[in-house]
Amino acid sequence: MNTMEVLKDSFDNTDYQLAGHGPRNVKVLKQAFQEIDDEVKSDIYGTGAAINDFEDKMASFLGKEKAVFFPSGTMAQQIALRIWTDVKGSPKVAYHPLSHLEIHEEDGLKKLHGIETVLLTDKDSVIQLEDVKSMPADVACVLLELPQREIGGQLPDFETLTAISQYCRKKDIRLHLDGARILETLPYYQKSVGEICSLFDSVYISMYKGIGGIAGAVLAGDDDFIKNSKVWKKRHGGDLISLYPYIFTADYYFELRKDKMADYYEAAKELAAKYNSCTGIATLPEIPVSNMFHVHIDRPREQAAEMLAGVQRESGIGLSGYVREIDQGNCYFEVSLGDAYSDVPKEKIDTAFHLLDEKMKGE
Amino acid sequence: MNTMEVLKDSFDNTDYQLAGHGPRNVKVLKQAFQEIDDEVKSDIYGTGAAINDFEDKMASFLGKEKAVFFPSGTMAQQIALRIWTDVKGSPKVAYHPLSHLEIHEEDGLKKLHGIETVLLTDKDSVIQLEDVKSMPADVACVLLELPQREIGGQLPDFETLTAISQYCRKKDIRLHLDGARILETLPYYQKSVGEICSLFDSVYISMYKGIGGIAGAVLAGDDDFIKNSKVWKKRHGGDLISLYPYIFTADYYFELRKDKMADYYEAAKELAAKYNSCTGIATLPEIPVSNMFHVHIDRPREQAAEMLAGVQRESGIGLSGYVREIDQGNCYFEVSLGDAYSDVPKEKIDTAFHLLDEKMKGE
């Protein structure tokens, strides 16, 4: 095994993990289906109670006219942007340079839809009103990702969101919410999800981040937008004969976790403070504004991996299964808090962080 | 309820159905997962034993180098054709005028990939060598659908397939198999699936037709083709974090049904003969060449629907939940044989067909 495999292996063999909702295994599916009757009918190509009831529920929850269930957020968001560029008759959309669509989708937006992208702000910042004001006039749609995942889940303040929304409405620019983790921002904003979504023309929410379902996404907006998105869903190959394995699990974990986001947020702040108390380690942001943050380690990647593996083997506490290089002397990993954290004995956490600090000091 | 709803309702309330594998309900999922351990790990974005083991198994079964699991056939086939048009540097593909891609996918192939289509032969025929020989020289890829679903599942003879394959190889034209129902053709061709697939550069097979899984598709071909198709899978939004609910069910029902295709074929021939014995009813083809056929009724759609609803209510035997208009005086429905047929008491089937014939004579 190389160092990174050793790190992964040490993580997989810990008794407790600090982040997440527990392992992604078959139990996740079985637990959600335990109480569902054998005779309950499948959805059929986007029709039937199995899909439409959940779509209606999510539309109402998000404060939008209609919603549609998608197999993935990648598909949902490309389609949202395609619709808005067609409406405006301009192929330009604007978003953060580290948007999922820009760095994780093999350029599907450009290769499938011919959409051109305008990158707002620098990669270490969140988007401000000034960034939106200074973009080219023919941008059809602005996408805001809340929280901005690739920089540790940072957030603009709510006044900025409101100002961007007002500006876009005045200028006839559509505003789309990449709200993969939108529920995770509510405790910080102290707003309802409806209050946030009302600032946007269209909204996407993931079913397997904070909610912890198996896969899938919901896209919401007005009636015309959703009708149109169903046509594109078929074009993309996303209008499956049966999506119910994802829908019933999404619904189950949505009910289980939608009201626990404040717990995850508090846990994130607590855990970030523990990391920040260690020599040569800092979280981004320093004080989390959602359930997530990044842990920056002032060590080369290989060295950090060996050290983390050591802490995990000695403490039985899982911090991370990987580290990514920032530059030759620094690396980081991501932490998203979920159900797992509250199961970990506090004294074991303290032991792990004591070990981590010792190792950072010693090297 | 209007007449079509009455028909659907009468079908849903029958004791037995002649076609299919039984209801598409939650039991289909639960049965497949019954023996799978809670601790079995999910696939993660196309990696892990949960997906890779089944892909390897299907590649080997189909006689291809590699295979990839897709959420849908729509996605898999658009991608196959996109890859072959890129390889050739020509945006043209040729297929049957009633290909799934031409009539059921909202023109995804054209709208997402800018592919131009050449329609081979007339819509009532299967594609012959002459059709392929007479198409424009710059066609990058020919798609053959076996069996040709929209005309009752007709098939060209195996010599025609071989001749088309040889011609395409000579002319540097790629040949793609829309093999959604390819297993269902093996008893007629008396060939192995490998023998058929060896004629094609790429092959798609559905996991929920004859196999009867929940959803999903497998695309197979050489190593380069599959590597490339995984990139496009991500672009389409098909590289889900977890596809295992579809994969494990596909595998379960594949093992359960792959060797039962001859039974379904024999049942189809038997059932078609019963339809053909009724006044004013004929199947297409007259003698099925797979597990499927169409039932043509020499009556206007509304009248046929009322009559079928009557037969279903009186006999408790489900023939069809719908009828589609051909012209003002004729209509049809599709029949695909599966596990359900062998559960139906023979005397009840005879009663139903006696009733059907009586009603056709009486009206």
Task: Report on this structure.
2 copies of one chain form a homodimer. Chain A is of the alpha/beta class and 363 residues long. Chain A folds into 2 domains: 3-23 and 260-362, Aspartate Aminotransferase, domain 1; 43-241, Type I PLP-dependent aspartate aminotransferase-like (Major domain) (Aspartate Aminotransferase, domain 2). Chain A is 44% helix and 17% strand. Chain A has helices at 3-12, 26-33, 49-62, 73-88, 100-103, 108-113, 129-133, 158-170, 186-189, 193-197, 223-236, 244-257, 261-276, 301-315, 346-362; strands at 16-17, 66-70, 92-95, 116-119, 139-145, 174-178, 202-206, 217-221, 281-284, 292-297, 317-318, 324-327, 330-336. A 7-stranded mixed sheet of chain A has the order 2-8-7-6-5-3-4, sandwiched between helices. In chain A, helix 1 runs parallel beside helix 14 (301-315), helix 2 (26-33) crosses helix 12 and helix 4 (73-88) packs across helix 11 (223-236). The longest helix of chain A is centred in the C-terminal third of the chain and has 17 residues, at 346-362. Chain A is globular and about 60 Å long. Chains A and B meet through helix 2, helix 4, helix 6, helix 11 and helix 12 of A and helix 2, helix 4, helix 6, helix 11 and helix 12 of B.
- What is the name of the CATH class of the largest domain in chain A? Alpha Beta
What's the gyration radius of chain A in Å?
A: 21 Å
Strand content of chain A: 15-25%
Please give the domain count of chain A.
Answer: 2
What coarse outline of chain A follows from CA principal-axis ratios? globular
Which structural class matches the secondary elements of chain A? alpha/beta
As for the CATH topology of the largest domain in chain A, it is Aspartate Aminotransferase, domain 2
Any idea what the CATH superfamily of the largest domain in chain A is called? Type I PLP-dependent aspartate aminotransferase-like (Major domain)
| Tally of helical segments of chain A | 15
Instruction: Tally the beta strands of chain A.
Output: 13
Distance between the termini of chain A: 23 Å
Could you give a short account of the major beta sheet of chain A? 7 strands, mixed
CATH architectural type of the largest domain in chain A: 3-Layer(aba) Sandwich
Multimeric state: homodimer
The residue fraction in helices of chain A comes out at 40-55%
Average per-residue pLDDT of chain A, rounded, comes to 98
